[in-house]
Known about the structure:
Elements: H1 3-26, E1 39-41, H2 45-60, H3 72-91, H4 95-113, H5 119-139, H6 145-162, H7 169-189, E2 194-196, H8 198-215, H9 220-225, H10 227-250, E3 264-266, H11 270-292, H12 297-318, E4 319-321, E5 334-337, E6 340-343, H13 347-359, E7 366-371, H14 373-381, H15 383-390, E8 394-397, H16 400-409, H17 419-433, E9 436-441, H18 446-458, E10 461-466, H19 475-487, E11 491-495, H20 500-508, E12 516-519, H21 523-528, H22 536-540, H23 544-551, H24 556-559, H25 561-576
Parallel strand pairs: 1-2, 7-8, 7-12, 9-10, 9-11, 11-12
Antiparallel strand pairs: 3-4, 5-6
Amino acid sequence: MQIDVFLSSITLALMGMITFTYIAHKIPFNFPYELKRYEQYAGALPFFGSLFGIVLGYYLNKASIPNAEIDYKILIIIFAFAVIGFLRDKYRYPKRIIFPAALLFSFIAVYFYFPGLSTLNIVSYSGFIFILLVCLKISSLVYEMPFILISTSAITHLLFMLNSSNYNIILTLIDFALATFSVATIVHTCSGNRILMSNSGIFASGVALSLVSLSESTGNLILFSFFIPAMAILYPIAFISLMIVTSYFGNRLHKTDNEDKHGWRWSLNREKTINFSALIFLCLNFTGLLVSLNAPIFGYVCLLALLFLSMTSFIKTFARKTVSYDFMHDDLEKVDILGVKVDAIHPKDVLDKISEHIAKPNSGFMHILTADSLAIVKAHKDNNFKSKVEAAELIVPDGAGIVWAADFIGTPLPSRVPGVALVGQICEMSKEKNHKIFFIGSKPGVASKAAEILKEKTNANIVGVEHGYFKIDSDEEKIMLQKIKDSKADIVFVAMGVPRQEDFITKLREYASNAVAIGVGGSFDVISGNLPRAPQWMQRFGMEWLFRLCLEPKRIFRMLEIPVFVVYIMRYKLNKD
């Protein structure tokens, strides 16, 4: 392609994008939801503007590019997908309607655009388009990511086609439109404003990228476009896993004491993180490009230099060696983790607070919540459960995930307070101070076995034991509450799991007005021997959840909340920094 055609295409595409974006700003879309003050919905209009500039440039330079005709079927397909996305944006049609519609339109688009394909090819082509659209939608959880994925893919396409002897000029022009639109949007974002292409823009640009990839005769562009699913699904998993492992072991959070734990301060600056992600994606694409073009060794040397630059960017973005530990906030009493105020406390301090509360006449009810990442996610999603959590007088960090999250956010907790260990420590303390303890929870026979073992080991004063298998708001539940009240127990261990035990403890406030109630989850199963406790090394490294999952595979659906918790923490950190 001649240089004047190249410059003309870029200029007109940029002018078209700016014009159509301005038009989008003047349209009162009247969505049923509010946009942030720095956001402006534009949908697919910026991309259409870029396409319009490309088409105009084609006609202005037609004499310079003979034997090339625009196939308007691709423009019709792009428009159809933009409409599907807009229906989702405007009317909030549910995903169960939009995504099947997108899949159906993928079949129609392939049949319409590639006549004569076999049924197997139609299915595979349609699946490719649909996967690409879904992955771009997933990547939109981070605002800039779809633009990065589209721009780097389009630029790689261009580099490949411009180095190919039989490139398709029309497909190249569409790649110019995609690259211009996405790069210009990223640059505009640096000003602090966002052009929301939302579902309409994602569907339109995604199907354009897909059709360009499928139309190229050698199939190499399909390979480059398949890096989008890798980036949208595999890359975040790898990136987050790397950050978790680096932060957990870098600050030695597995150490049982607090001495010399912290050596790094974590930073997740949004712009630098996005730049790092873009560099990694470029490395992936350029690797495929060098292989497909049989590039000389010099090309691989340049790729290694780019990879080195990427890793340097990661270190500067993520971890900074600390000289002073002032950021640890030793005087901090509570740490905010996704809206839940977790007490910065040692296990010994928990025992002291319990003892002081019981010794004080008419001290009132005390709810101690042993929080793990699942409880935090539940509180973040469920306002009813969150209100019960906020009513707790003490929220202690049970799970290793809580300790990691607090450290990663920048307000480290001094220690974990594991629920199983806490039960034994409280029983040991109660022997000296003759506190009355009540066990309730788990399956019939489990609580009594746990109580028997602890009674023999600590000689604790256990005044009642009941199972937890009764219906919520049933007469049996009321009987259990009354039994606890009649026992005059000072401490009540409630082992029913989240959120059932918090609901029970909330009701217990009306019955045991001066008791200390502690939700201890599956502690009775472990203490009784019904479930073996994780090996010491797994406890130390916060991997009890994995051990428990191996013993009880049915917990997999609960464990799926752990990645959700990590994503919430990452998004919080990203926006905070």
